[in-house]
Amino acid sequence: MPQKPGRPLELTVSTPEHLETLKTWFPDRDSLWQWGSPHFRHPFTDESFLEDAFWGKMPTYSALDEEGSLAAFGQYYERAGRCHLARLVVDPVRRSAGLGRWFTAALLEIGLRDLGAAEASLFVYRDNAPAVCCYRSLGFREHEWPPDREPWPEVMFMVRLAP
Q: Would you give the DSSP letter of residue 106?
């Protein structure tokens, strides 16, 4: 498991209680769509949020701080033989402290092992410079879009190839 930043954190399977906190991190449509894509309905209801986040349909993890409060959230699934990371987010008040890198690396380690994959992928908005920098630091590089998806100019498809 990657070294944890600063204070103690626990990586755990997400619960519905974590989603209650998660929803508060997206006060407007733009922040919600940057995280979950424009397929997320806004304003959302409890039910639509669960549906749009594919709750219960893919592995979903949370990072909790020493008080048990949600610090980060993410999911993964298999896409074209790779571990595809999805809906990664760090608590807005905890950003720029290394938590995103730690959480992404930890989730990636679990996902690669669980799926038996050697490579990983993700989508990220080009203008989300901190996230792009984080993913590059973990070995992700911009890659040609998957053939089953229509490219969005404002979104980058990134892949981390097998070592």
A: H
98 close to 110: Cβ distance less than 8 angstroms: no
Q: Which two tokens stand for residue 129?
A: 């410079």
Q: What is the DSSP letter of 28?
A: S
Assign 3 a pLDDT band (cuts: 50, 70, 90).
Answer: very low
**Residue 150 one-letter amino acid:** E
Question: What gap in Å lies between CA 79 and CA 163, rounded to an integer?
Answer: 19
Cα angle 162-77-29, degrees, rounded to a multiple of 5: 115
Q: What dotted CATH number matches 10-160? A: 3.40.630.30
Please list, in sequence order, all residues whose beta carbon lies within 8 angstroms of the beta carbon of residue 149, skipping any fewer than 6 positions away: 157
Contact between 76 and 111 (Cβ < 8 Å): yes
* pLDDT for position 105: 96
Q: Any idea where the domains of the chain sit in the sequence? A: 10-160
64-to-26, 46, 77, 84 alpha-carbon distances in Å: 18, 22, 21, 22
